[in-house]
Structures are given as structure tokens and as C-alpha cells.
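Researcher: I'm preparing a figure for a lab meeting and need a structural model of a single chain. I don't have an experimental structure, so a prediction will have to do for now. The sequence is pasted below. Please return the structure as C-alpha cells so I can convert it later.
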Amino acid sequence: MDWIYILIASVFEISWAVGLKYSEGFTQLKATILTIITMILSYVFLSLGAKDIPIGTAYAVWTGIGAVGTAIYGILFFNEPKELLRIAFIFLIVVGIVGLRLTYKNV
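Model: Understood. Here is the structure written out cell by cell.
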């Protein structure tokens, strides 16, 4: 269940990161409120997942999934650069996430 919590936390992290864009510097009330709620939920689920997963692993996976998801969202919806080198580096983050998960040992 811990890894499910980390995954849920990561989805909320993507949501709040994207919400920052829509909040326009916290000037848009609805987007700001949603951003703050998803920030809180992201931290709550991260803390639940980190109960039994080492914090370094949990945090790295959480931020990695958040970074990859946010970058992909930006490419798809904000017309951010789609350069091959950029995509290759995003892929390297995915490799790191998978590597951390595969090398995780229950302590």
C-alpha cells in the first residue's frame, strides 16, 4: 500500500505544480484554492507512503513522478518544447524512478 500512497501523492504533486501555472501567481482564487488543497493532499499521501519506505527513496520517486508528469503536461497543454534531448532527459528521470523501485528492499 505504501507505493500506492506514493503514486497518489505524485498525482497530487503534478496537480499542484500545474495549478501554480493556472493560479497566475496566486491571483486566480479558484485555481489558488485547488492548488493549495492538492499541495496538502500530496504531502499527506507522501507522509503515509514514507512510513515504511525510506524517506530518500519515497521523496525521490515522488518528485521524479511529479517532474515527469508536469513536464509531459507542459508539453501537451502549454506548448512547451518537444526537443528530442529534453525528452531524453525526462526519460532518464523515469529510468531513475524505475531503478529506485526495483532496488527497494523492505527494511
